[in-house]
Amino acid sequence: MSGPLSDLRDAVIAASGAVAGPDGGSSALPTLERPKKAGFGDYATNAAMLLAPRAGVPPREVAGRLAAELERRLGDALDRVEIAGPGFLNLVMSDRWCVAALAHVLEAGEAFGGGGAVERAERVSIEFVSANPTGPMTAAGGRHAAYGDSLARLLQFSGHEVTREYYINDIGGQIRRLGESIQARARREEVPEGGYEGDYVRELADRIPGAAHDDVAVVAERGVELLLDRIRASMERFGVQFDVWFSEGSLHAGEPSAVRRAFAQLEQRGESYRAEGALWLRTSAHGEPKDDVLERSTGEPSYFASDIAYHLDKLERGFDRLIDVWGADHHGHVARMQAAFAALGAPEGAMELIIMQFVNLVERGERASMSKRRGDFVTLDDLVAQIGVDAARFFMLQRSHDTTVDLDLDLAREQSSDNPVYYVQYAHARIASILAKAGGIWRVTSALEEAPRYSGSLQAAERTLAKKLLAFPDEIAEATARRAPHRIAVYALELAQTFTAFYRDCQVVGAEGEGVESVRLALSVATQRTIARALDLLGVSAPSKM
RNA sequence: GCCCCGGUAGCUCAGUUGGAUAGAGCAGCGGACUUCUAAUCCGCAGGUCGCAGGUUCGAAUCCUGCCCGGGGCGCCA
Predict the structure, then answer these.
(1) What is the pTM of this model?
(2) Which of A11, A166, A177, A379 is most buried, most CB within 10 Å of its CB?
C-alpha cells in the first residue's frame, strides 16, 4: 500500500535501521501510531525504546539520534520531532504534509481505502445465516446477515472475488418435525412433542392444500418452500443478496451423490472405517477426542456427512478460501469440521469457521430465550418494521461478533432515534448541503483542483480531519484481516464526530483567505466520500438530505 | 470434568495484537438555536479495566490460577 502514511512508516523504519547500524537490527518493527491525546504530536513511534536494549544506550539518547535522522530524511514534511516520556518520538507533521495527504485522498477518489489485497486476490466463498427453513427469519438471523454481508463487502472492497452462500438444511429430523407440526395444525390437533408451536405453522397449514392428509414428507417439502420464500424476501428487504442458495438435499441426489463421492474420497485416503453397523470418520487422527459418524447404522448419512460433502463441493468449485459464519451453538462442531477438512486433504488454513455469539431477547430487564421451536422469538421483519434497516444493521454491526448482544425491542424502538447511525448519516447529509450552498458541482470541481496547491497554514480542526481521513485504509485493512466489520462502524462514528468538530470551528463556504475555501471544500468532499464508503461497507444508506 | 466467548463509567459497548493521563454513545446535571442542516454543539460528573499472582522500561491487552455470566461437548441439525 502506498500513501503518505506508509511513506512515513518506511522513513521511521529506515531511520531506525540507520541508527542501529549494520548488526544492531531490531527484532520488532517499530510502531507508528496516532496518539490518543493531543500534545503528543500527530504520530508517535516507539522505535527508540526498541533499539535501546540492543544498543546498550538509554532510550532517550537513542531517541536523540533517531530524531536527527528523521529530520534529515523527512525534510519539510516534518515540522518538528519531540522526545517524550520514556523515549517516545512524537512527530509533528507540517501543514504542507497534511495538504499532500489530503491530495492523496482526493486522487484516490472513490477507490480510497480499497484494493489492499489486489496482489493476492482470492476467490472467497462466504456462507452465513443458513438458518433452518423451519420458521421465519429471526432478529438473531439478522445479526448473521448483517455481519456476513458486511464482511463480504469488505473482502470485495479489498479486491477479493466473493460468493455469498446460504446453506439450506432442507432434510433431516427438524424438517420432518416441521411437516408433522403443519399436519397436526391442519387437523386442528396439538403439535407433537418437540414440534414447532409458532403461529406461522397454522398459517402454513392453511396455505398448503391437503396438509391434513398428504404424506408428511410432501407437506414438509411444501412448508420449506413457503418458508424459504419468506426468508428470501426478508433477506432482500434487509439488503442482503445471496449468490447461491445451496440445498443440503441436493447433496444426496444424483448417482453417485456428492455425499457418496465424499465418502469415497475419505475411504480412499484411509480416513474412514465401518464399525457397529455405522461408517466412521477417523477425526481422532486429527486431534479430536473421538471419531464421528458419517453414516448411521440405519443407513442414513449424518448431518456431518452433508457438511463434509458441501465443503468438498465448494473446494471443487475452485474457491481459495471458505469462510463459514456459525452461531455459538455450533462451536462444538468447529474442531470436528476442521478435522474432516484435513481428512479430505484440503489445504491447511483454507477454511475459516467464525463463531458469532448470541442475540438475547430482553424483556423487563430479563434475558428470555429465543426459541424457534416454541415460537417465542422476534422476527427480523418485526425488527426492521420498528426501527428500519439502517438502524437495525448498524445496531447489529456496532458490536464485535464475539460479544453477546442483548436486544430489547421496546428499548430499541424507543432509542432508535438515538441510534448513532443517524449521527453518521446526518454528517453526510450536512456535507451535501454545504456543497450545494458553495455553488454545486462546478465550484466543487475547481476546489478539488486548487486544494492540493494550497500553501497556507491549517487550523487544528483541519489537520485533525485530514489525519482521520488518512487512517481509513488502515482501518479497512484491519477490519478485513480481523473479520471485524464493527471497526468500520466505530470509525464511521469517529469520522462523523471529527467532521462535526471541523464544521463547528471552520466556516467552509465563503471562508476568508487565499485558497482556504477550496481546502475546506476538498476536506468536505473527501469526508463525504469516506463516510459514504464506510456506510456502504456496513450496508447502510448515505442520504443527501435528512 | 473438558472446550469456546464474555466480564472496562449507572446502562450498552470500543480500546489500533504491549505504550504515555483507559475512550464513545445513552442516561444524569448545567449551558448554547438570527448559523454552511440543532437528528447538533460546549461544559460538569461518573473507573479496584472480575479477583490474585507473574513476565518488563511499560499490562485493560501476554502467562498461570481462581470467581461470575452465556454457549458447547449426540448414530440432533
Answers:
(1) 0.95
(2) A166
Total number of domains in chain A? 2
Evaluate whether residue A338 is within a structural domain: no
Residue nearest to nucleotide B56 (CA to C1'): A53
Q: Is residue A86 part of a domain?
A: yes
What does the pLDDT look like over A284-309, one tens digit per residue? 998 888 899 999 999 999 999 999 99
Q: Can you give the residue range of the structural domain that contains A529? A: 100-108+417-538
The residues, any chain, with a CB within 8 Å of residue A170's CB and separated by 6 or more, are A133, A224, A247, A248, A249
Percent of chain A exceeding pLDDT 70 equals: 97
Domain CATH number, residue A476 = 1.10.730.10
Q: Which residue is nearest to nucleotide B26 (CA to C1')?
A: A418
Q: How far is the CA of A43 from the C1' of B30 (A)?
A: 36
Q: Are residues A72 and A104 in the same domain?
A: no
Considering only CA atoms, give the Rg of chain A: 29
Residues A104 and A76 grouped into a single domain: no
- pLDDT per position as a tens digit, A225-273: 999 999 999 999 999 999 999 999 999 999 899 999 999 999 999 999 9
* Interatomic CA distance for residues A194 and A439, integer angstroms: 66
Q: Is residue A505 domain-resident? A: yes
pLDDT in tens, A375-414: 778 899 999 998 999 999 999 999 999 999 888 887 788 7
CA A49 – CA A64 distance, rounded (Å): 12
**In A388-515, which residue ranges form alpha helices assigned H by DSSP?**
389-398, 409-415, 420-438, 440-450, 460-470, 472-481, 486-505
